[in-house]
């Protein structure tokens, strides 16, 4: 009496197989077409494919974190967005880099910010805000004041048209620039 091995590879018993007809025996007129691979025959919607495509990206950063990063100025307002930048959202804690004294002010603003962020991204996305003072982050300078548009220069010897209009406006800007240089400005 011999025992079969319980571990390792087992040899398959030889099974009799039906013999296939030789390729020459089939007629070419009735030959079936080569079957397409399984993936080509199976149709599925784009929505069914999206989880497989987005899963690697969402492992690195959640969709809620991306939304907070992209919509930061709309969520917190332009004044606070100018001096803060969201750095990381992990485990319900949003790390925010702040410029200057805003880092000490941010804990007092946190309940309102958390409510606004959760209102935009969904309940429970952010439960805590961690301020991080970043010396490299500086407030953006205010935008320059718009200069007044000068009066166009009269051009008498050109026919009416877009070229004449453009040149007369250009002449006005050049005249204003020359006048400011003469004044010492």
Automatic annotation (TrEMBL):
Pfam families: DciA. Residues 14-37 have a biased composition (Low complexity). Residues 139-151 have a biased composition (Pro residues). Residues 1-37, 139-185 are annotated as: Disordered. InterPro entries: DciA-like (IPR007922). It comes from the Bacteria. This is DUF721 domain-containing protein.
């Amino acid at each position: 009496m011999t025992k079969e091995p319980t571990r390792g590879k087992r040899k398959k018993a030889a099974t009799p197989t039906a013999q296939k007809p030789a390729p020459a025996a089939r007629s070419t007129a009735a030959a079936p077409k080569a079957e397409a691979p399984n993936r080509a025959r199976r149709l599925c919607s784009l929505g069914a494919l999206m989880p497989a495509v987005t899963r690697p990206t969402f492992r690195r950063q959640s969709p809620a974190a991306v939304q907070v990063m992209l919509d930061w100025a709309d969520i917190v307002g332009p004044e606070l967005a100018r001096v803060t930048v969201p750095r990381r959202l992990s485990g319900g804690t949003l790390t925010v880099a702040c410029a200057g004294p805003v880092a000490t002010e941010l804990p007092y603003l946190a309940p309102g910010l958390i409510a606004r962020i959760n209102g935009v991204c969904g309940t429970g996305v952010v439960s805590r805000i961690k301020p991080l003072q970043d010396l490299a982050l500086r407030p953006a300078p205010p935008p320059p004041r718009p200069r007044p548009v000068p009066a166009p220069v009269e051009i008498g010897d050109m026919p009416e048209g877009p070229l004449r209009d453009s040149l007369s406006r250009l002449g006005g800007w050049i005249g204003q620039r020359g006048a400011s240089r003469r004044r010492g400005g």
